[in-house]
Amino acid sequence: MRFILGVFWVLINFQTLNAQILYGTISDSLSKKTLAYANLSVLNSKYGTSTDSLGNFVLHLKKHPNDTLFISMLGYQSKTIALHPF
């Protein structure tokens, strides 16, 4: 089964706005090709998005320091990543 390699992102924290912007790229673990139209969602919240045709995403969210990012795509094993280190 193919795996989602990972998420390369930068987290920008705007203290005055009390919001965060998470952006990056989703790629295949074997071929290293980016994954178009993969789904991303923050568990226990209403925030989510999809990657574009190049595998890039931008996710605007309020602070969720103890939440988890859930990444899924048809044909791939889903992946979860804790948001608290970011």
Structural key phrases:
86 residues; mainly beta; four-stranded mixed sheet; four-stranded antiparallel sheet; globular
Description:
- With 86 residues, the chain is mainly β.
- Helices cover 0% and strands 56% of the residues.
- A hairpin with a 5-residue loop joins strand 3 and strand 4.
- The termini are far apart.
Structure, briefly:
Helix content is 0%, strand content 56%. By secondary structure, the chain is mostly beta strands. A hairpin with a 5-residue loop joins strand 3 and strand 4.
Alpha-beta content class? mainly beta
User: Average pLDDT value?
Assistant: 79
Question: What share of the residues does DSSP label as strand, in percent?
Answer: over 45%
Straight-line N-to-C gap = 29 Å
Q: What is the helix/strand order?
A: EEEEEEEE
Query: What is the strand arrangement across the widest sheet?
Result: 5-2-1-7
Task: Describe the largest sheet.
Answer: 4 strands, mixed
Q: Give the % helix.
A: under 10%
- The count of helical stretches stands at 0
Rg value = 13 Å
**Overall morphology:** globular
What's the total number of strands? 8
Point out poorly predicted stretches.
9-16
